[in-house]
Structure formats: structure tokens, C-alpha cells
# Entry
Amino acid sequence: MTEDRTADTWQDTAMGRPPRNRRELRVKLVWIGVWLVFLSSPVGDLASGRHTTGATVAGTLGLTAFVAAYLSLVFRRMGKPFSPRLTVSLLAVLGVLAPVLAYSLGRDWLGLFVYVSVACGATLPVRAASWAIPATGVVMYLVGLHSDEKEARGLLLLVVLIGFAMTGVGQLIRTTIELRKARATVAHLAANEERLRLARDLHDLLGHSLSLITLKSELAGRMLPDHPEKAAQQVADIEQVSRQALVDVREAVTGYRRPRLAAELAGTEVALTAAGITPDVPADPDLTGVPEESESALAWALREAVTNVVRHSGADRCLVRLTHRQTLDGPVLELTVEDDGSGGVGSVPGNGLTGLTERLEKAGGSLEASWIKHGFRLVARVPTAPAGDVGSGA
# Structure
């Protein structure tokens, strides 16, 4: 149990993120504290009594300032880093204290250059660290010539290697931070896409249903004085449409609704008739080999087109056709909705057509909408074969 808890603690402490609680703070302090082992030699030298009182006091103050600057740099680097100017200033403090202390107090202080190299690798950009780390090693070797050239030569490789190792760790931390930001961006984009999908679905669903309810309400109002039976039938139709709209909205919210083209064709005839528009709608569409996604996209296109005809066209007649065609890109199913109205001439495409274009493009199809000599025509096309089968048939 203790081992599992310890493993979880190390795993939960995210790289490149400031500590969120005391446990993570302790974990990161342990990570930093491991490197303080190189201070054993300077501390032992101060405690040995080999130096004068003034040198011991000066060495203690210098070592305290050195450790404070080092811990500030490295610990803040694991969370919110210092500004570049303050980082360079603290590195300059380390770069001055290390050679001064090592030159004045002897070979036991050469280990301070390890911390200078670590700080350079952890805080500087890769290009700056690539020359700062070797320079630290060179300065350490030159200072060591004054006290113990053999000790300096032995530490030279360690200083350089550990500095470049910290450069790799720093690069890993930066990459982790960028990946975390990218993951947050992807999640944000996915949420936006879902909101757009829901907005399109609700627009298509409620626009069609509310238009039909409005038309039938007007009919019922005109029939009430003289034809109460017919008005009651219109009210019953309104109730049925309202219930179906509620079901459709619930299914759209859950993301599982895929309208069927045959059902939309039947609803189209009812909506056009209720609006006083003569419908010309195919009774039994041929949907052989049409993928479900393509059928769903055409069903949405038909619903949006008929809603626009009922709302804006002022037409007397509406023609709906479904045609299988063979194109250079493969077989497609083409939906044509054409009316003889004149409402909305010169208007710009609304949210319905914009959302419909996006929906068809997602299914690999396309949309064309244009004014013709006697009305308006909308043509929607979707592929009827999987991408791998395009061009394989006759």
C-alpha cells in the first residue's frame, strides 16, 4: 500500500506545472533537494575550522546567497518562471559567486559549478545554454588550476554533461506544457463544434416544426366560426407536430438523431399542402446503396429547403426530385427542390443554408442554390458509395 501510494504521488505530480497542494510541493522539493548533495564538500570545508573566522563568515554568507539564488531559479522554473531579465540576473549572481568562492576557499568549492551548469541548462534557451554550459566548464577548470587541477579535470565532464542533461529536461518540460495547451485547445474546439452541430440541428428541427404549427394555427383560426370539425383536426395536427418536435429536439440534444429521407418526403407533402402549395414529391425514393450519413444529410437539406419555401417563397407549386447520377468523382444522389415563387429575391443566404452547406460538406457532398427564371432552385448532392469504392462500378 505504501509503495502504491508513493508511486501515485510521483505520477500525479505533473511536469511543467506549479504545485497545486502540499503533497506536490513536497515531491518537487525532494526532486530539487537531491541535487544539494554536492554542497556536502563546501559545508564540510566550513565546518573543518581550516579557515579564519572572517573567511568562514564570508564563505557562509556567500554559500547562503548562492543556494538561495539557485533554489529560486530552479523551483520557479517548475512553476511560473521569472522574467528573462531576473533570470539572467540570478544566473549572473551564481556565475560570480561560484568562481569567487572556489578561488578563495579551495578545491572543495569547485562543486558549485555543477549548480551553475544545472541552472543554465534548466533556465536558458537551448541556443544560449549550448555556449553557457561549456563556458561554465572552462571557468571551473581555470579556477581549479589555482587549487587542484586534477579535481577540476575530474569535474569538467560532469559539469558539461549534467548541464546538457538539464537542457533536455527543460526541453521536455516545455514540450509538456505545449502539449497540455494543445490538448486544452482541442477540447475547446470540440466543444465549439458540438455547439455548432446542436445549433444547426435545433434550427432545422424547430424552424420546420414551428412553421408548420404556425400555418395550421392560422388555418384553425379561419375555420373555427364555420367549420369546427376541420378546425379540431388542425388542432390535433398541431398537437401531433408539437409532440414530434419535442421528441426530435430531445434526440438532437443527445446526438443520436438521423432523419430518414422517406419520412421527410412524407412530411414535405403535408407541410406544402398545409401552406397552400401544390406538391410534386416522389412517393417511394430509391435509396439503394446510399450510406446512412448521406441519407441523413439529404433529409436535412430537404427539410431546410421546404421550410424556406413555406416561409419565404410565396410559391404556388413546389417540385422535389431525387436522381441517381454518375460523376467523375463517383456515384451521387441528387436532391432538387424547385419552386415558382419570388419571395426573398436578392437576399443573402441565411443561417439555414450556411449550416446546411456545412452539414453536406461533412458528408462529402455539396450544395447549390440559385434563382431561376420562374422561382428558386436548391440542389444538394451526396456520394452514394464509400470513398474506397469510388470508380469501381460500371
Remarks:
- The mean pLDDT is 78.
